[in-house]
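Re: the pair you flagged

First of the two:
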Amino acid sequence: MSVSLNPLVKKEFNRCESCADRVKLPFDFSMAFQPIVNVDTGETYAQEALVRGLNGEGAMQVLGQLTPEIMYRFDQRCRAKAIKTAVAAGLRTKLSINFLPRAVYEPENCLAVTLSYAEKCNLPLDQLIFEVSEQERLNDAAHLKYIIDVYHAHDLTVAFDDFGVDQLGLDSLVKYQPKIVKLDRLFIDHIDQNKRKYAIVKAMIQLCKDLNITLIAEGIERIEEAKALRDLGVDLMQGYYFAKPEFERLPVPNAANLYELKL
């Protein structure tokens, strides 16, 4: 299935393409992937693309080399690299790509390259998720609102990562209207032993249902956490309990752990 670019986006492609492919960065990088799992079906809902060095070095080693002058090119290259690497690895699910709002100077123009690579790789737009972290959301609220409005106009899915930490509150769900919220591990860690965390997550689940927002619990490392979340009605989870990130491969969720979760 191929995708069709909005003419207003497509006409800007030549202007922006060099930032994704033709202009070299002072360093190179690749991608690892970690699955988001539907624990009810045992199937992978999405693969999150995570930046890595060429030899699998961690994200901070790559991100530590960023400067303001190359931020835009790096963001565009990350999107293209995530799409091409995931498709080459046999992607059959959604693909979650982290993006940097401060690197998007004009949403329509910058989006052109991403959509063009999706078109080249025959990746349907409804398989793309654009993920932005809480810290990134704090930098420029008005600019982020503009970006998200453009993405929504193209029927693209925006997810809020690390939700619930730092300074943004529930008003961000009204202001930005994300389609997906990834609940930060702060609320997941030992939730089975913490009544306050349990109550907060329970309320968040109901709130997301009422607002038609998909909720993903991230950072699950223990079966007790997974069971507590499952009992609360969470079906989409991510974390080491299910699978660790794998370099340039699409990990398969741990079948034994999924089976144990259902017992």
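Second of the two:
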Amino acid sequence: MKLKSAYRQALMEGGTAGHMQHPFDDNDLKFSDFEKMIRGLLDGHITNHGKVTEKLDGQALSVSWKNGKLIAARNKGQLKGHGENALDVKGVKKMFAGRGELETSFGQAMVDLEKAIKGLSEEQRLKIFGEGQNFMNIEVMYVPTTNVIPYGKNMLVFHGASRYDENGVSIGTVDGSASILAGMIKQINANIQKTFSIQGPQNVTIPRDANFNKQQSRFIKRLTTLRTKFGLGKNARVVKYHEAWWEDRIDKSFKGATLPASTRKGLLRRWVYGDKSYGLTSKNIKDEKVLEKAKKIDKEDYQKLFKKNIEPFEMLFLELGARVLKNVENYISASPEKSVQAMRKELTQTIKSFEGSTDVAQIAKVATHMKKIEKMGGMDAIVPSEGIVFKYKGNSYKLTGIFSSTNQVLGIIKYGN
């Protein structure tokens, strides 16, 4: 079972693409895998597992080609029947009508994409889209609708196509589809359209860290401290740490009570693996006081405890990300240095604008994220990118640094959330 993540974004990445994992989200990984990742990311050898691409901060769109036209899906219902109810260009424009620059961003993206893809042969379109069976996940970067990263140019970047069954359930991916489609479009000189340029994933280079030995030792020492806290070996799955952590928490929370093995196992299933099939009922937990306490933890304390449990791994990889991202070369930004300067300026001005606020809850949230930013290197850790996506043992993982906390601070102050 997979450990439920408390750090998923409110909006699904890629529109219909779903959530991309941080390494610490994956229950199947071992501590030895984490060590290999740390070394590979710091010395650049992570590329031995596959190309490393930039993770982009744009708006999500998923498109396919069916019945001679471009269609888009923004939810599972529009994926059903191989895009039977998906939106065409007019439908997308109508959906975003009256929403300012978003109307132009999504509407013109559809216009430019349809024109570019229409120039391909039927055989080429079938190869990528399968007449609505496959949807290409796209990042829309439009200067007037910039989120956090100011890229300085309008771009449509392909991430890869997912294959869906009749019920709109993902059943796989189309290998190499993003680069192949981008290459097809460039071959017919259709990659530069009226509003957007069109391209495949942005491949980046990770040079060996200038202080590799010191940094490797620093991060692996932190990982070893976590591993040995509960007497785990290198080949132990990381989820065993979470099990031990929650067992300790259960012992402290129910001190003095006698918990049957079935109750303890059930609570671990629920709180470690997110398995809600174990209900907090009198049928499962006979002791009324234990049941009342379990319900309170589940309803009032679980999210805080979950974050406390996962935080050491989260911060390890966020700080590692901040270090690695400073070394990355070939970011997609038109002017990386200008982008960094603009981000530093916006963050500084946004924080200053919040001075004098009487909203205690928001002050606490901002303070929490600013502490994380300082741990990751402060303003010097800002890079013109959300992060990178790398491969390990056939799976894709994201590595981010300061972006998430920066995004949270800007969001709290701009939108109050």
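Confidence is low (pLDDT under 50) at residues 1-15.

-B.
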